[in-house]
Specification:
This protein is an alpha+beta fold. The protein has 13 helices and 22 strands. It is globular. It binds one RNA strand of 78 nucleotides through strand 1, strand 2, strand 3 and helix 1.
RNA sequence: GGACCUGUGGUGCAGCUCGGAGUGCACGCCGGCCUGUCAAGCCGGAGGUCGCGGGUUCAAAUCCCGUCAGGUCCGCCA
């Protein structure tokens, strides 16, 4: 039907006869003797010249036959990749007429997202969406090649799975044959892939759709796609190596540039230096510890287990009301207060402008400036509080004051390793797992599990890109005795463990290899690499924040007969 | 569950503080003119439940209350 693609016609094709198919992007008519038609397909746009009039409208689907020719001298269009040539002596065949589109099929048209989604089939024609979905496909393809090359076997796991009362809320699927019973859609293939390890598939992966019935965000949809992988007889270093290979290959395929080796950082260093477990390393300021400076301070505001500071380069020009706003923000984030110091210069001496400036000793003033590295023009923010609070509050302010859109380069990947095994003590006095209860404790710390559980590190790790968590994984527990100790620490009784995870623990009784794995979000990776701030821009048919689909109208009520078939009655609201 | 922002011809906005006739801008659309344009140009035209409901008022796009939809964030996402 066609001889090539619109965007690929070039100077080398001059003289050849072509037939191109696509959509009418624009037409420019010059009376009854001459008309230009810009023809668009997925590859781009080429100008077609018609000697006469044409009865075409925007977005008509047409086939244009003609001869490629060099444009007349001075008529080239340097802003168009095909701008040196045009299709001449055209005959146009209308394959399909079209109503005027609801919005311009061009990138520069900014359109309300719900309008775009309602007419997604039109939106998808725009170069942005074409590029984004193709970038995503290139990334996925590279991931598959990387995993295959490393000896991994792609295996599908069920979409209809068993309810597990743990973690994210699950989508329920009623069973027709077992009226009153339900499957759930998997929030991740976690347990299935561990069963595959017991089954002897020592290197498994899957481009897996995962579903979680939790509230949506710019970086979260009900359904999302992960590279899910698991391997047996491996160390944490092995897993990080496998995943790094896939991620770096994907990034190279998507952007053309291969990132450098991904650096590693311990969880405690991430908290200490950036106040978060997903640090954005594009921002070059770090939190600074002022504990030594104020160790014996008379200043009551700084009498706290931890005194942390954040230097804000050039921040001294902030107005008093802007600073008041920062103080309020810090309080909203959980700090008791926020001290600020505007750094200035007076006759060669560095001065501090702050309500607290006068109560600081000379040594404290010097220490604050020296330790933070502040120079005139900077602003220094100080939070004194419990260590975790001081770090996270300043870490959040760091991002809010200096952050950039996630998709804006450069791309800074980092492995955050040695997550704590437990997050905190729950209301029942038992620690709460930071990852999932099958995470292997760090071998150096395992003896403290009963005596000092919150100090126990785990062999769990996250991959972070520009402040977004791409994914997480861990070495899993494969030994019944260690699993029993973790369950015990968590306050999960033997009976409880049996009823909730029985089919996994019993599988482990039949010969479980040491294993570990990882899963990272392909939507998120693709979005960042595409320069987008929302994963909706790399998903063909996403949902809105309320979980609706403006195109199909989903979700909808089911006909009464369908409900009756499933044995379901809708409760009155 | 909560906070904040947004809603005005097909699209994007202005108008809203300080109430006075659906007023304006750009794009698109329709018609006419036009033989080298390329976001073509020129002339003319059509197109509106100011998200919806209620209240205040002589009078509401504008003020108040409620509600719906969309977005960002918190909670949530082991």
């Amino acid at each position: 039907m066609r001889t090539g693609l619109c965007g690929e016609v070039g100077i080398g094709d001059v003289g050849s006869r072509v037939r191109l198919c696509g959509w009418v992007a624009r037409r420019r008519e010059h009376g009854e003797h001459l008309a230009f038609v810009d023809l668009r397909d997925r590859s781009g746009i080429v100008q077609c010249v018609v000697d006469g009039t044409v009865d075409l409208r925007s977005e008509y689907v047409v086939a244009v036959a003609g001869v490629v020719r060099r444009r007349p001298e001075g008529m080239e269009n340097p802003s168009l990749p095909t701008g040196e040539v045009e299709i001449g002596d055209c005959t146009v065949e209308v394959l399909s007429a079209a109503e005027p589109p609801p919005f311009l099929v061009e990138d520069r048209a900014e359109v309300d997202e719900v309008v775009r989604l309602r007419h997604r089939y039109v939106d998808l024609r725009r170069p942005r969406m074409q590029a984004n979905l193709r970038l995503r496909a290139a990334a996925v393809s590279a991931i598959r090649r990387a995993m295959d090359r490393q000896g991994f076997c792609e295996i599908e796991t069920p979409l209809l799975w068993s309810p597990t009362p743990e973690g994210a809320r699950e989508f329920a699927v009623p069973s027709r044959l077992h009226t009153g019973d339900f499957y759930v859609l998997p929030q991740s293939p976690q347990i299935a892939k561990q069963l595959l390890m017991v089954g002897g598939f020592d290197r498994y992966y899957q481009i897996a759709r995962c579903l979680r019935d939790e509230d949506l965000r710019a970086d979260r949809q009900f359904e999302f796609t992960q590279l899910d992988m698991e391997a047996s007889f491996v160390t944490q270093d092995d897993v990080l190596g496998f995943v790094s290979e896939a991620v770096l290959d994907a990034a190279e395929a998507a952007t053309g540039a291969r990132p450098q080796e991904i650096e590693r950082m311990s969880w405690s260093a991430a908290i200490d230096r950036y106040g978060t477990d997903k640090p954005d390393l594009r921002i070059d300021t770090e939190l600074v510890d002022l504990g030594d400076v104020f160790a014996s301070s008379e200043v009551r505001a700084f009498a706290a287990p931890s005194v942390k500071a954040l230097r804000v380069p050039g921040g001294s020009q902030k107005s008093r009301s802007a600073l008041d706003g920062l103080v309020e923000r810090a309080k909203a984030l959980g700090a008791k207060g926020l001290a600020w110091f505007r750094v200035a210069e007076d006759e060669g001496a560095t001065t501090l402008d702050s309500p607290l400036a006068r109560v600081l000793s000379d040594a404290e003033r010097d220490g604050l400036v020296r330790t933070t590295g502040a120079v005139p023009g900077d602003l220094v923010l100080v939070v004194a509080d419990e260590h975790r609070v001081a770090c996270t509050v300043l870490g959040q302010l760091r991002v809010e004051l200096a952050g950039k859109p996630v998709g804006e380069g450069p791309y800074r990947y980092v492995w955050v390793v040695e997550f704590p095994l437990f997050e905190a003590l729950g209301a029942d006095g038992h620690p709460v797992p930071a990852h999932h209860p099958f995470t292997m404790p760090h071998p150096d710390d395992i003896d403290r599990m009963e005596t000092d559980p919150l100090s126990v590190r785990s062999q769990a790790y996250d991959l972070v890109l520009n402040g977004w968590e791409l994914g997480s994984g861990s070495i899993r527990i494969h030994r019944a005795d260690i699993q029993a100790r973790v369950f015990h620490a968590l306050g999960i009784s033997d009976e409880d463990a049996e009823s909730r995870f029985g089919f996994l623990t019993s599988a482990f009784r039949y010969g479980a290899p040491p294993h570990g794995g990882f899963a990272f979000g392909i939507d998120r990776l693709a979005a960042v690499l595409a320069g987008e701030e929302s994963i909706r821009e790399v998903i063909a048919f996403p949902k809105t924040q309320s979980g609706a689909d403006p195109l199909t109208g989903a979700p909808k009520a089911l006909p009464a007969a369908a409900l009756a078939d499933l044995g379901i009655r809708i409760a009155a609201k």
